[in-house]
Amino acid sequence: MSPADERPSWAADFFAVPLVDLGEGDPKLKGISTPEPEVGAEKIGISEQFLAGAEIYDTRYTHSSYMVELLTRAFAAVGFRPSGSLDVLDMGSGSGKNSLLPLLQITPQARAIATDLSPDLLEILQRYTVKEGLTDSIACVCTDAMNSHFRPGKFDLVMGIAILHHLIDPLQAIKAAHAALKPGGLAVFFDPFEGFGLISMAFRTILERADRDRLELNPTAAKFMQAMITDLDARKGTDKTADRFRYMDDKWLFTRTYFEDAAAEAGFRSVKVIARNTSDTSTREYVTDLFRLGCQLEPDALPPWAWEPIDLMDQTFSTEMKADLVMEGVIVLSK
Ligand SMILES: C[S@@+](CC[C@H](N)C(=O)[O-])C[C@H]1O[C@@H](n2cnc3c(N)ncnc32)[C@H](O)[C@@H]1O
User: Fold this and answer.
1) How many other CB atoms are found less than 10 A from the CB of residue 43?
2) Between vectors from CA 93 to CA 183 and to CA 152, what angle results, nearest 5°?
3) CB atoms < 10 A from the CB of 162, how many?
4) Which of 38, 43, 44, 46 for a ligand 1 pocket mutation test, highest count of atoms within 8 Å of Cβ?
5) Closest CA to 8 of 21, 27, 26, 25
6) CATH of 3-192, one of 3.40.50.12100, 3.40.50.150, 3.40.710.10, 1.10.3470.10
7) How do residues 159-205 score in pLDDT, each as one tens digit?
8) How do beta strands 138-142 and 270-275 pair?
9) N or C: which end of the chain has fewer CB within 10 A?
């Protein structure tokens, strides 16, 4: 059977508009559909890393082990018990490895519509779905998370892992999530926050000290820290009207207030933000991860004096304050 033959017909029931199979225009996308009004629409706000570079991106960023733990914590925080026949909308699912697949570990009977703006990333998920015989439980639909072509009140759970910070206007996606949920349903997002400013401060201190005291610093590490400072600076605040945001993948660092206001405007009953990491050494752990992922350097690439301002952040704040100064967090919205 070809992937197109295996495309689950059940997906259409969740949409207010007809779905068109992308395989009609490109055979390798058979089985992935798109809402008719979005056929041929320009893909604004994502770069080649999510399109032509999808395979490389997919291999580099897979952390599903911690996503199972985070989703479990998020559900427990609001007393949500995912069970049997759960209908799930995954916004910006990419290849699904950090969102749908962890969810299916928690609740294997769930049925999910996996959406993304990138047909290339969805193709990876579609291949996996066909290979594993999961076409009755996962359907791939290429759509912009800021659009809302779903029939209202159809889903028990909306999830979006690392999607909102890519959107020019995340409020549109939060409103779409609210409309798509059944009464009593839950939306769970995971995104970066302005708490990352702590790392920016530490990096600035390190670079200034190296310059002032003529201390040696690995040039790759120095370049990476400067790039992080520039990137984090560009993403703070809520004004995303500048043209550059159309071409930047990472657009936002959020605050709790943003989500409290957005939740109220979208009509959610409540919102909870759960920080991912509040351990005694969380800043050190984040910096270690950033170096490994961002420039393939191990912690010993930084000399001991450079770790001092990083460790100072960890020593300065209590666990409770770290939870308030979220770097990355799960946002749990109850309808
Ligand atoms: C950081 S990846 C996260 C993917 C997946 N949820 C995960 O955690 O691995 C961000 C995803 O958002 C998608 N994306 C970016 N802008 C989007 C938009 N406007 N609508 C839908 N998806 C979008 C990208 O194609 C990419 O798959």
Assistant:
1) 14
2) 25
3) 19
4) 46
5) 21
6) 3.40.50.150
7) 999 999 999 999 999 999 999 999 999 999 999 999 999 999 999 99
8) unpaired
9) N
